[in-house]
Amino acid sequence: MQTLQLTKDMNYNDLKVLEQYKDLRNIIIKNQKITVFDGLESQSQTLFHLWLDSCYFLKSFQSMSKFYFPHLETIRLDKCKNFSDLSGLQSIQLSIVNIIMDNTLISSLKPISSLHFVKLQEIQLYNCQLLKSLDGLESCKFSLKSLILNNCAIETLDVFSKSQFCLTDLRIIKSNLSSLDGVQHLFQLNILEIRESKICQLQQLQYMIHLKQLYLDQNLICCSDEFYYLQNLVTLKQLTLNRNPFYRDDQFYEKLISAVNERIEEISIDEQIDPKKLRKQRKFNHNFVRFSLLDKKKDVQKTQHDLISTLDYRLLRIESKHNKLLKTAKLVTKCVNIINTVAIKAHE
């Protein structure tokens, strides 16, 4: 038996029930009243994946610290709404590869700051709305490749300026982030995605020479001069800056084209929103739809105008060619008449 699922009908307070099983590789625990991990040690030598779902009474990993799990690669917590402490992860610091948490009360990563994760490559945190800082993340700076933060209250990326990380993929969605300070130290970063935040400047990106994909939708970038900082990103292939309140002056597209040159394979910056309409978030969607419709109407009118102009031009060309053919025909007729006249006189 490799996979065991504990359902909500069992109502266990601990995991001693696992002692009757052997060689479990995957354990899924849903809707249980467990408060400690006592009993999990019986599977310590074979356990690879642990998934906890809706375990509302669980608050930390502290009870795991008494045992060693040499093969545990993935820990996933979903809807463990009272889970607030990362203490106790020292028992898996040499084996863990993925940590995924959704809807928890975690407010700090400092409990793991003294650890040394060797294989931890990916951290995904969703709906951790008390988490404002990434301090403590330096414990996995040598191994961490991917960091995903969705709907967390992150305010700063200063932790990246304190230690040299090996991150290649950083994605932050729905945050309180207002500055990219710190991200310039992620020299190996290939993918940077920061959506629905408060970013307004791109200066920190100018030396990220390995960046290939940049997604900055729904931020507060309003000045087209920020495109200047993209000129040095020679490896950049994809760029999206949709739904930013750009002020589109006469040089807007010229600045964009001069910044990205011909190396960009995919670029998306077509949504235009009036900055004054972004003051109230509740009106954002309405205004976006309104402006999108206006843009579409303008596009249709422009297309119609272009078609009419094209048809007029083609008609003029046809008329010109027709006139030339008439002139040529008259000239040929005149030449034929002259030849006939000369032939008649020569015959006489």
From TrEMBL:
Chain coiled-coil ranges: none
Protein name: Leucine-rich repeat domain containing protein
Keywords: Leucine-rich repeat, Repeat
Origin organism lineage: Eukaryota, Metamonada, Diplomonadida, Hexamitidae, Hexamitinae
